[in-house]
Specification:
alpha+beta
Length: about 220
């Protein structure tokens, strides 16, 4: 600990190990934020290390809350890869320029859907994260044929209906997530398969398989 800041966080240093020093690494100054979260009636202390040192622009409470919302990035990737795309071959284009164009199309489509979710959530006073992306996607897909037929006079009424339908796609509050810094245990005590193991024990494998099927 070097200096305690106004919001209770403090400045410290991260020093490189001997190997990193040989590669030219130097120590860097960081800000450490300690906070307590109650999980199942058990209080756990967390330490958040950051290089954002301005306590006025980045208060400790804001950074701690933002850190635990980082999982929204994973949800966004899921929206892209699984729901918005949904194809076995994500990129159909074969040339770099067309690949970039296709990705931009995804980004624009995702932005439009999220914008509609934001507008619908604003009308009913909900957080945008409380409205289902997949539910909204289904509503939009159903509405596209109707939207292509409405006139400019009918457009405001149609959009009002669309926002109401999207606002109905509410989901429960997401549970707080954490990522414990632990080492995963191996699932098997046996060594992994190597190239020299290929083709060995073929007759024995077939025999065991037949016994299992008969049993």
């Amino acid at each position: 600990m070097v200096k305690v800041l106004a919001d209770g966080s403090y400045l410290s240093w991260i020093a490189p190990d001997s190997h990193s020093k040989k590669l030219g690494a130097t120590r860097i100054q960081v800000r450490v934020i300690e906070y307590v979260i109650e999980e199942s009636s058990i209080e756990r202390t967390y330490r958040l290390i950051t290089d954002l040192k301005d306590v006025i622009q980045f208060p400790a409470l804001l950074l701690a809350q933002s850190y635990h919302r980082r999982w929204e990035a994973e949800n966004t990737l899921d929206e892209f890869k699984v729901h918005l795309n949904g194809r076995r071959t994500p990129i159909r284009s074969k040339k770099p320029r067309e690949v970039v164009q296709e990705i931009y199309g995804w980004l624009l489509a995702h932005y439009c859907i999220r914008h509609l979710i934001f507008r619908a959530a604003l009308d009913v006073g909900l957080a945008p994260t409380r409205i289902s992306f997949t539910g909204t996607l289904k509503v939009i897909r159903r509405a596209i044929p109707q939207f292509q037929q409405v006139t400019s006079i009918e457009k405001p009424l149609f959009l009002s209906w669309l926002f109401t339908e999207i606002a109905d796609q509410t989901i429960a509050h997401r549970q707080s997530r954490s990522n414990p810094r632990v080492v995963k245990k191996t699932r098997s005590k046996f060594p992994g398969v190597k190239s020299g193991h290929r083709g060995r024990g073929t007759h024995l494998q077939k025999l065991n398989l037949s016994v299992i099927l008969v049993a």
